[in-house]
Amino acid sequence: MIQLKLDLQFFSGEKTEKATPKKRQDTRKKGQTAKSQDVNSAIGLLSVFLFLLFFSTSIGKVALGTFRTAFNETILLDVTEANIRPIMIDFLMDIAYMLGPVLLVALIAGIASNLLQVGFMFTTEPLQPKLEKLDPIKGFKRIFSIRAIVELLKSILKICFVGTVIFSVLWINIDEVLVLSQKSIGAALKTVGNLTLQMGIAASISLLVLSLFDYLYQRYDFEKNIRMSKQDIKDEYKNTEGDPLIKSKIKQKQREMAMSRMMQEVPKADVIITNPTHYAIALKYDEQKDDAPVVIAKGVDFIAQKIKLIARENNIVMVENRPLARSLYDQLEIGDKIPDEFFKAVAEILAYVYRIQHKI
Q1: Exposure of 273 by Cβ count < 10 A (0-12 exposed, 13-18 middle, 19+ buried)?
Q2: What global pTM score does this model have?
Q3: Measured between alpha carbons, how far is residue 183 from residues 44, 81, 170, 294 in Å?
């Protein structure tokens, strides 16, 4: 039953396998990655409220100075074409001085939260126009999909949780809220500002806690969406590494070419050391080039028989030495020189061959 189930999964193309590194890289190039917008919102809000907590006094002084200038000096000026421009410039500069640092902190927090989640990523794929996005049927499916329902439940949970936290902060400071009407305007504004900062920081921290769970969910959902079937992995391997059948044919052709080159060297050998039936090693010794005999061909079974056939056709001496043939085959490759441990045995064989051929 288990094997039948696995076979059915394979042929049905069910996506049960983890995404390969190439699949992840291609998905990232398209701008698709696990990211939670709630993390960006929470970090941005928390950064802004923390900035206001430490620098709200300076911003308040600038705001107070702006209002004093407006109500004590600017309001008394005649509105003319000559003075309207400098008045507006001064007013906009004061606003920029108040809001600029807050916006800069929000911008830095947004960039940092994105880098924290996905790292540095630049792609223009999401900006390319796609007509399928205008399909009303697909849009209707997205609106009433499982993902949309999950997002709705998440929004309700966030509203309830953050609302409860804000209400708790107000309830803790209910005494100050009830006496606001008895305070002066300055003291009341200061109390409202402190309560706003407390509620903002508490709401940001609660939203940050929820966003961590949302990030884990987004990662789970992303991993689920990029899963691959066994056939997908097989097709990807074919596209990246090439068809296994073609690769095997290429390797077979390379082996044939190497075999052909090796067989062409056999007639140049001085001696063929045999097993006598299973192994054959062709040795050549050139006193002027090498300080030891060199293996120019070797083979086992069918290849060994072919080496011996070429040796007979070219009148090359074959010497039977079973342990030496097997040792040379196991320890040496084509082009290797005879090591010291076999030098004496090989030298005796070469001396025997040279005597037969009347070279010495």
Answers
A1: buried
A2: 0.55
A3: 33, 43, 18, 105
Say how far apart CA 76 and CA 325 lie, in whole Å.
114
Q: Which residue's structure tokens are 């090591």? A: 339
Q: If we measure between CA atoms, which residue out of 233, 247, 243, 244 comes closest to residue 21?
A: 233
Q: 3-state SS string over the chain?
A: CHHHHHHHHHHHCCCCECCCHHHHHHHHHCCCCCCCHHHHHHHHHHHHHHHHHHHHHHHHHHHHHHHHHHHHCHHHCCCCCCCHHHHHHHHHHHHHHHHHHHHHHHHHHHHHHHHHHHCCCCCCHHHCCCHHHHCHHHHHHHHCCHHHHHHHHHHHHHHHHHHHHHHHHHHHCHHHHHCHHHCCHHHHHHHHHHHHHHHHHHHHHHHHHHHHHHHHHHHHHHHHHCCECHHHHHHHHHHHHCCHHHHHHHHHHHHHHHHHHHHHHHHHCCEEEECCCCEEEEEECCCCCCCCCEEEEEEECHHHHHHHHHHHHCCCEEEECHHHHHHHHHHCCCCCECCHHHHHHHHHHHHHHHHHCCCC
Residue 34 contacts residue 218 (beta carbons within 8 Å): yes
pLDDT digit string, tens, across residues 132-170 = 666 666 666 666 677 778 778 888 888 898 889 888 988
Contacts of 161 (CB under 8 A, 6+ apart): 206, 210
Phi first, then psi: give them for residue 280, nearest 5 degrees. -150, 125
Question: In which residue ranges of the chain is pLDDT below 50?
Answer: 1-12, 360
Give the other-Cβ count within 10 Å of 19's Cβ: 20
What are the phi and psi torsion angles at 286 (to 5°)? -115, 110
Give the distance, in angstroms, between the CA of residue 237 and the centroid of all CA atoms in the same chain.
18
